Amino acid sequence: VASNKRFEERAKIAVNPMATKLFNLMASKKTNLAVAADLTNKQEILNLAESIGSEICVLKTHIDIIEDYDQTFISALEAIASKHNFLIFEDRKFADIGNTVKYQFENGVYQISKWAHMVTVHGVAGSAIIEGFKDGLKQNGSGLLLLAQMSSKGSMCVGEYTNQMIEMANNNKEQVMGLICQERLQSMTDNLVLMTPGVQFNSTGDKMGQQYNTPEYIIKEKNTDIIIVGRGIYQNSQPKTEAIKYRAASWNAYESKNFN
Ligand code: S5P
Fold first, then answer.
1. ipTM for the complex shown
2. pTM here?
């Protein structure tokens, strides 16, 4: 199934404000590369963000793996994000009842709603989970990314569950900006951003169930919008050089689609 609209056209039909912002950012910066900065030291993340910031549209964090976290980290990361024009994605994978995720999103050590432009959500608890985000999302016009499929071996986000996640997204477009998925399916409408992890040039997987595809395969054959690359970039001895390669591969694959 092909989406035949360019990102700038999709920005105009997106409903969630962060979806519009991200489509426009990708179109103007000419990058559909997101990097997963899965490092456990705040200075290492900031160094990575500074070195690759010019190449990416989104930097994805797992804030709870940082060993020396404090609030100075957020302001430092925000400064780099505005200097290099990328968005911050906290991959929290919220999965509880609405009342609990509201606390997890707005409170605690991390106060995620204050700084994250987008967060991941599992729909396993049912669509009422979205109620828990409504207040927090308003703070910055942020968006939810529903996990419709996963990259890992034996994933249970398949079949009817995937269809239900797409329906949940289509029914809540004010809050939901997009999907985490492995392929574009027909019911995934053009106003949603499709982001795909499990991308690496030189590996087919790891020892803990991760499965990798190439940028070309994901963007061209599977027709999603953004690749998310972690170890393929941050574990390389030259992350910047490598990020440039992933950026070129995924952008060229996007540009090679047939638009009308
Ligand atoms: O299905 C998924 C969803 C996500 S968000 N598979 C994933 O791997 N992720 C995340 O993407 C994962 O938590 C990690 O941060 C990143 C992939 O990292 P890599 O080092 O395997 O590229």
1. 0.99
2. 0.98
